Amino acid sequence: MRIEEFRRALRREFGDNLEHATPANVRSFLDDLSRKRHEPMVRQRIVLDEPKTTYEEILRDFFARVLEFPRDEAVMLLWTMAFELSFLMLEHHLGDRLDALFGGEGRRPQDLS
Fold first, then answer.
1. Residue 65 burial by CB count (10 A; 0-12/13-18/19+): exposed, middle or buried?
2. Which of 15, 68, 96, 108: disulfide with 19, CB 3.0–4.6 Å?
């Protein structure tokens, strides 16, 4: 996918200013995007050969490899990762707030401001 196509897909899905993005539809969009990107490769045998043993090592390796990607590919990959993580954090934040409102183990309602 080219970066222009990526921008159009994002704006088509979430609006010009991403105003329609929510944790749920961001997750769904990114799942579909990933499925489309990797679908041709899934028909082949998948070999898992990950020499890294910790999450920290995997992250370092990922970011080091992205530095070598073509610019547009790196931008799209890093942008989608940041988008996903931001909305994941939002989902957890909202979950804590709702949990507290409905008597869960989260914070008390007066602690939410």
1. exposed
2. 15
